[in-house]
Amino acid sequence: MKKKRALLFLRTLTARAYVRVFGQMREATWIVASILGGFFTMATYMYLYRSIGTGADFTGIVVLGGFMAPFFANVLWGVAMQLYWEKEMGNLELMLVSPAPLSAFLVGLSVGGAMHTMLRALAVLVFGVTVFKVHFVTVHLGVAVLVFLVTLWAMYGLGIVFSSLFLYHGRDAWRTADLIMEPVNVLSGNYFPVRYLGMGLASVAILVPTTLGLDALRQLLVPSFGPVLLGWRVEVLILVGLAFVWSIVGVWALEAVEYKARRDARLTLRWQ
Amino acid sequence: MRGFLASMYVGLQIESNWTRKWVWVLYLVAYPVGSFLSVLVLYGVFGRQSGLLPFALYGSVFYYSISMVAFDTAMSVHDDREHYQTLKYIFLSSTSYGTYLCGRAATRYLIALAGIVANLCWMVPVLHLPFAPNWAALFLGCALGFLIGAGLGMVMASLFLLTARLDTDVVEALFGGMFVMSGALFPPTAFPPLLERIAETIPVSGFIELVRRGISGVQFTGFLASVPLESLMLRVALGAGAVFVLGVVLVGLGSRQAQRKGYVDMTTAF
User: Fold this and answer.
1) A-side interface with B, Cβ within 8 Å?
2) Spatial CB neighbours of B184, under 8 Å, sequence gap ≥ 6
3) Going along B82-125, which residue ranges are E strands?
4) What ranges do the domains of chain A cover?
5) What pTM, to 2 d.p., does this model score?
6) Of A30, A51, A88, the CB nearest to B187
7) CA-CA distance, B80 to B66, in Å (whole number)?
8) pLDDT digit string (tens) for B41-67?
9) Are B50 and A53 an interchain contact pair (Cβ–Cβ within 8 Å)?
10) What is the value of ipTM here, to two decimals?
11) Rounded alpha-carbon distances, angstroms, from residue A233 to A196, A205, A213
C-alpha cells in the first residue's frame, strides 16, 4: 500500500513537472521576455552603482542577484499562487477529486518551476557576465552548486507554505503576493550585501532562504565580496535547517488549510 | 462621459472590493513602498555622497504611477476576457472599448497618485527632500503622465486583444527596458552617449524630469539640463499626446480585428 502511494506521488510529481517545464517552452515570447526583463533589472542596478561610483565593486554581486531573482519570482507566482490560479480556472476541484495528493502537485510544480527557471536564470547570468564583463572565482564551484541547490530546496519549501495560505484566500492572496514581491527582494539583498541592512533586519530576512543563499554564493564566487552576514558554512547549515522546516511546515499547512477550505466550502469559490 | 465614469467605477470596484475598505486604504499606502524601498537602501547606504536620493525617490515613485497604469490597463484585457469573462459584455455595451480602458486607467492613476501623495507626506519631512512645488508644472506633468500611462497601456491592450498568450513577462520586459532608459533611478548621463540620446527622446524620461522639477524646484543632474521648463512641458505634451493618440488608434483597430476574428469571448485557460 505504501509502495502504491509512493508511486502515485512520484507519477503525479513527474506529470506536473513535465507540464510546467514544457508548457513554459511553448511560447518563444515568454522565454525572450523573461530573459530580457531579468537583464534590464540587472542593467538598472549596474548603472545605478556606476552613477554613484561603486560600479566595479558591485558588478559580481548584482549579476548573482539577477541570477537568483527569477527563482523567487517563480516561487511566489509559479508555486505559491498556483492553487489560487487552479481554483480560478476550475481545475482545483478536478485535482481534489483525483486520488493524486495535492502535495505531489506542488512538489512537481517546484521541480518543474526550478528547471525551467534555471534556463532563464542561466541566460540572464550569461548576458550579465558577457555584457558587464564580470569575473567569478570558480575554485569553489562544486560547493557553490550545492549551496544553490539547498537554497532552491528551502525556497520552494517556503513556496509550498505560501501556497497553502493562498489556497484559502481569493484576490487578497494575489494582492498580497504583489505587495511583498519587491520588499522581499530588497530584504534578501538581491542587489547589495544584505549585511548593510543591519543585523536586526537581516535576522528577519534570513527566514527568506534567498538571503542566506545569495550571501553564501557571493562569498564563494566573488572574492572581494563583503561585508558578509555569516560564514558560508554556517549559512549552509541554517539553509538546510530552513529547508527541512519549510518543507515540513508546508506539507502540514497544506493539509490543514485544505481541510479548513473544504469545511468552509472555499475550494470552488471563484472571483472572490 | 457616462461610459467613462462607469468604467472608472468598475475600475474602483475591481481594485478595492477584494477586502474591507480600511485594509484597502492601508494597501494603497503600502503598495508604492516597494517602488522606492530599494532606492532608500541603495542611495541611503552607498550613494549618500552623490546627493541623488531625492532625484531617485521622486523618479521612482512617479515612474511607478505610469507603469502601474499601463500594466493594469493592458492586463485588464486578459482579466476581463479570461478571468471574469466579461469582455464580450463590454463590447456589447454602448461604450467604446477605448473609453472603457481610459476609465480603468484613470481610476488606477488616481489610486497610484493617492498612494504617492500619502507616502510623500512622510518622506518629504523625514528624509528632508527638497519640496518647492511649481504647481502648474506639477499638475500639467501629472495630467500628461496619465496620457502616457493610458496610451502605453492601450498600445499593449491592442496587442493582447489579438493574442491569447502574450504574458505579463512581455509587459514587464517593456517596462524594465523603459525603467533603465527613463532616468527614474539614476541619471542617464551614466550611459554611453548613444543610449543617453535615446533616453532624452522617450516621453517617459521627459515626464519624470518634468514632475521632478515641478515638485522639488531643483534640477538635480545634467540630464535634460539644457532644456528650460517651458520647453520641457511642450516636449512632454507632444510626446504624451502622440503616445495617447497611438494607443487610441491601435485599440480601435485591435477591437475591430478582435471582433472580426472572434477573439472577444475566447477562453484558453491562460
Assistant:
1) 26-27, 29-30, 32-34, 36-37, 39-41, 43-45, 47-54, 88-89, 91, 170-172, 175, 178-179, 181-183, 185-186, 191-192, 196-197, 271-272
2) B56, B59, B60, B62, B63, B208
3) none
4) 2-264
5) 0.85
6) A51
7) 21
8) 888 887 777 788 889 999 999 998 998
9) yes
10) 0.84
11) 20, 18, 11
